[in-house]
Design goal:
The protein has 12 helices and 9 strands. It has a 7-stranded mixed β-sheet with strand order 3-5-4-6-7-8-9, sandwiched between helices. The chain has a two-stranded antiparallel sheet with strand order 1-2. One of its GO terms (molecular function) is hydrolase activity. This is Alpha/beta hydrolase. InterPro entries: AB_hydrolase_1 (IPR000073), AB_hydrolase_fold (IPR029058), Carboxylesterase_BioH (IPR050228), Epox_hydrolase-like (IPR000639).
C-alpha cells in the first residue's frame, strides 16, 4: 500500500474468510512484537499485521509524517484497502491511540477492541521521551554506536523480565543505519499529546466491547492510567497481566493470548452497531 506516507508493509496469517483480527503495534516497536500472539490467533482468525509508516519494514524517509494524526488516517485507509468493514482490533501502546483516533475521528468500525497498555490519556511521555522530543536534531547526530546503545537500553526497559538478545536485536534493527537513526528520533519528535487530547473527551461515546489489558509491572505507563481509561469507556473490562511490563507480548505471551482469545471469541460473531 502506497500513500503520501510511503510504503506500508503488511501481511496476513490464517485462512481467508475466517473472522478478521487486526493487530496494531506501538512505539518504538513493529509488528514483530505480535508474532507469537498472531500465530496462536491464526488458528481461529484471519490475522492482519502491519508496520506503521516509519516503523519496521515500512518506509522511512526525511520529512515523513509519522504523527499519531497521520497513523490514524493510514489505519482507517488500510482497513478500507483490505475491505474490512468491522474487524476485531487489538492494539498496543501508540497503536491504541491510532486505533482510537481511526474509530472516533475517521469512521473506522470495529466489532470489538482490545487495548494492551495503550497510550490514551494525558499526561504521557517519560522524562527521556520528552527530552529526546525537545532535542531530536541533536540526538540524530549521535555516533552510530552511541545511538545503538541508547535504543537498546530504551527498548529493554519496556520488559519486566528482560528480552532475549535475539529478540532485542530484531526490535532494534529497524532503528539502525542512517535512515533508521533519523526515523527513531523523528517518531519521538512528532509524538504530540494533543493527538490524544483531541479524542480523550470522546471515550464515553465508544459503544463497542472493549478489553483493556495491562502489564502489572509496566514502568512506562502507570496501571492507574489503565483503570482510568476503563472507567471512561462504557462497559470496558480491565484485566491485569501478572509478571509483565509494558511489552506484555514478550513478558507474558501465553497469559495475554488467553485473555485475547476469550475476549475475541465472545465477540467474533457480534453484529456491530453504530458509532
Amino acid at each position: 500500500m502506497t500513500q503520501t506516507f510511503g510504503d506500508v508493509r503488511w501481511r496476513t496469517l490464517g485462512d481467508a474468510g475466517k473472522p478478521p483480527v487486526v493487530l496494531c503495534h506501538g512505539t518504538p516497536f513493529s509488528s514483530y512484537v505480535w508474532r507469537a500472539v498472531a500465530r496462536s490467533l491464526a488458528r481461529h482468525y484471519e490475522v492482519f499485521l502491519w508496520d506503521m509508516p516509519g516503523y519496521g519494514a515500512s518506509a522511512q524517509y526525511d520529512g515523513q509524517d509519522v504523527s499519531l494524526a497521520a497513523q490514524g488516517q493510514v489505519f482507517a485507509s488500510l482497513l478500507d484497502h483490505w475491505g474490512l468493514e468491522s474487524p476485531l482490533v487489538v492494539a498496543h501502546d501508540f497503536g491504541g491511540a491510532v486505533s482510537l483516533r481511526a474509530h472516533l475521528l475517521h469512521g473506522a468500525r470495529y466489532r470489538a477492541l482490545a487495548l494492551v497498555d495503550p497510550v490514551a490519556l494525558a499526561p504521557w511521555g517519560s522524562p527521556f521521551f520528552r527530552l529526546v522530543g525537545q532535542h531530536a536534531p541533536v540526538f540524530e547526530q549521535l555516533p552510530p554506536a552511541l545511538h545503538r546503545a541508547l535504543v537498546r537500553e530504551y527498548v529493554s526497559s519496556a520488559s519486566a523480565k528482560g528480552l532475549h538478545p535475539d529478540v532485542l536485536d530484531q526490535l532494534v534493527a529497524p532503528w539502525l543505519g542512517e535512515a533508521g537513526q533519523g526515523a527513531f528520533y523523528r517518531q519521538i519528535a512528532q509524538s504530540d499529546q494533543r493527538f490524544t487530547d483531541e479524542v480523550q473527551p470522546r471515550y464515553p461515546e465508544i459503544d463497542i466491547p472493549v478489553l483493556i489489558c495491562w502489564g502489572e509491572e509496566d514502568t512506562w505507563i502507570p496501571i492507574a492510567k489503565g483503570r482510568e481509561l476503563a472507567e471512561l469507556i462504557p462497559g470496558a473490562r480491565f484485566e491485569l497481566i501478572a509478571d509483565a511490563g509494558h511489552l506484555v507480548q514478550e513478558d507474558a505471551p501465553a497469559e495475554l493470548t488467553t485473555a485475547l482469545l476469550d475476549f475475541l471469541a465472545a465477540n467474533r460473531f457480534r453484529v456491530p452497531g453504530g458509532g
